């Protein structure tokens, strides 16, 4: 039997020996999990009793008894695992408690730290040797450390430290692969990375750059729109300026991608759903249409009005809104005409651009939306507020 104990702390807490894996989180209670985590993070030196008490039992009336009892229970529970049977896993020393240093421990965050230190000794741009070391970091990092709902602050700090190591390494690796024109390899790694860190914009940025470099323009535009909607929905803000610049590149490159015959163009232009409802688009596309339509309106003597709709679940706590927003979006679309535009500007807001000669006509549209909104959500405590402004271009530009 192998004497090496492989400890996975990223994305869970597991110990493997001789192809047998034990899920510690499922096996132990959260207090024992927390205690074992502290010992793992101090595996190179004993943890003093006072330090353990400060971390795990800062408000206990009898912390010494709690510590002794928890150490006893943890030892007993570990000895119930077959590959730890009859082994002294936790050693008591004059300086405190430590995982038995005579056992061969292979802990993932220790290996990751070593690899990270190796690739941070050289230049900012990785070379091929450092790239291979970086791949080890990606293999080891499978998500943040396990943290119980009442987890202590110390583990959350360590979560962030190692998350930053992972993201920084991923950015440097993406830059290296991009300069080497290994776009498919870069995109695969970034796709796997965003599954772990879905709201890191940099990971998405390099994936989208890969789509542009491989001339997948349509997929890149679709990816941009979907990602922008997700960021608005989950974070309340859209993508950054560098994405907008990349978006402009996609539009420009896509325009000169290939020549099309008129029949193909007519078919593509007519391919959109012709239902009589509003057109929903990303905020970036909305801004383009806004400028275009308002320039045309000067010549055609048309008026456009902006309508801002703000939704809440009745608590007026917009940070914790519980509105079914996809359903609201479909509702608003059905109340608009096919030449009306709308977009999402935050987690709880929709912005409409409607073709109306007077403000009274804009209020009729709002009334139509309001009636349908309160009819559909009459059993819920949802609320809709609005404001109306005449749409105008900045004459000073």
Give structural notes.
With 397 residues, the chain is α+β, with helices and mostly antiparallel strands. It has three domains: 4-108, Arc Repressor Mutant, subunit A, CATH 1.10.10; 109-256, Serine Threonine Protein Phosphatase 5, Tetratricopeptide repeat; 279-390, Reverse transcriptase/Diguanylate cyclase domain (Alpha-Beta Plaits). Helix content is 52%, strand content 14%. It is built from 15 helices and eleven strands. A five-stranded mixed beta sheet has the order 7-9-10-8-11. The protein has a four-stranded mixed beta sheet with strand order 3-2-1-6. Strands 4-5 form a two-stranded antiparallel sheet. Helix 2 (30-41) crosses helix 4 (63-79), helix 7 runs parallel beside helix 9 (201-213) and helix 9 runs parallel beside helix 11. The radius of gyration is 29 Å and the shape is elongated. Pfam families: BTAD, Trans_reg_C. This is OmpR/PhoB-type domain-containing protein. InterPro entries: AfsR-DnrI-RedD_regulator, BTAD, OmpR/PhoB-type_DNA-bd, Sig_transdc_resp-reg_C-effctor, TPR-like_helical_dom_sf, WH-like_DNA-bd_sf.
Strand content: 5-15%
Q: How many angstroms separate the termini?
A: 76 Å
Provide mean pLDDT, rounded. Answer: 85
Radius of gyration: 29 Å
In CATH, the homologous superfamily of the largest domain goes by the name Tetratricopeptide repeat domain
CATH topology of the largest domain: Serine Threonine Protein Phosphatase 5, Tetratricopeptide repeat
What number of domains? 3
* Percent helix: 40-55%
- Give me the count of strands: 11
Instruction: Please write the CATH class name of the largest domain.
Output: Mainly Alpha
Please write the string of helix (H) and strand (E) elements. Answer: EEEHHHHEEEHHHHHHHHEHEHEEHE
Structural shape: elongated
Low-confidence runs of at least 5 consecutive residues: 316-321
Name the CATH architecture of the largest domain: Alpha Horseshoe
Domain OmpR/PhoB-type: 32-98
Protein name: OmpR/PhoB-type domain-containing protein
Family: Belongs to the AfsR/DnrI/RedD regulatory family.
Keywords: DNA-binding
């Amino acid at each position: 039997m192998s004497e090496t104990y492989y400890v996975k702390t990223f994305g869970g807490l597991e110990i493997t020996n001789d192809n047998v894996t034990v899920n510690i989180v499922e096996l132990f209670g959260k207090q024992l999990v927390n205690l074992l985590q502290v010992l793992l993070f101090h595996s190179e030196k004993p943890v003093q009793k006072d330090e353990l008490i400060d971390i795990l039992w800062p408000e206990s009336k009898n912390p010494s008894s709690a510590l002794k009892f928890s150490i006893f229970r943890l030892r007993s529970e570990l000895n119930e695992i077959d590959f730890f049977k009859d082994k002294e896993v936790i050693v008591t020393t004059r300086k405190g408690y430590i995982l038995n240093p005579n056992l061969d421990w292979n802990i993932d965050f220790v290996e990751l730290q070593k690899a990270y230190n190796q690739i941070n000794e050289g230049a900012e741009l990785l070379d091929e040797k450092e790239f291979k070391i970086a791949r080890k970091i990606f293999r080891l990092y499978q998500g943040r450390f396990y943290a119980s709902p009442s987890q202590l602050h110390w583990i959350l700090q360590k979560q962030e430290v190692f998350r930053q190591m992972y993201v920084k390494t991923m950015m440097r690796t993406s830059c290296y692969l991009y300069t080497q024109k290994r776009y498919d390899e870069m995109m695969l790694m970034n796709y796997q990375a965003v599954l772990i860190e879905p709201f890191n914009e940099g990971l998405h940025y390099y994936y989208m750059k890969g789509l542009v470099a491989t001339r997948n323009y349509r997929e890149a535009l679709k990816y941009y729109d979907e990602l922008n909607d997700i960021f608005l929905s989950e974070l309340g803000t859209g993508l950054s300026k560098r994405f907008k610049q990349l978006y402009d590149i996609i539009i420009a490159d896509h325009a000169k991608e290939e020549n099309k015959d008129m029949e193909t163009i007519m078919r593509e232009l007519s391919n959109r759903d012709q239902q009589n409802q509003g057109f929903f688009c990303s905020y970036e596309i909305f801004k383009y249409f806004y400028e275009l339509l308002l320039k045309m309106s000067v010549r055609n003597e048309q008026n456009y009005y902006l309508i801002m709709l703000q939704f809440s679940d009745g608590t007026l706590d917009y940070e914790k809104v519980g509105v079914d927003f996809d359903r609201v979006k479909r509702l608003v679309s059905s109340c608009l005409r096919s030449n009306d535009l709308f977009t999402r500007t935050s987690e709880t807001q929709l912005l409409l651009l409607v073709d109306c000669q007077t403000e009274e006509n804009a209020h009729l549209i709002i009334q139509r939306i309001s009636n349908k909104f309160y009819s559909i959500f009459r059993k819920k405590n949802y609320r809709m507020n609005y404001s109306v402004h005449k749409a105008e271009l900045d004459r000073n530009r």
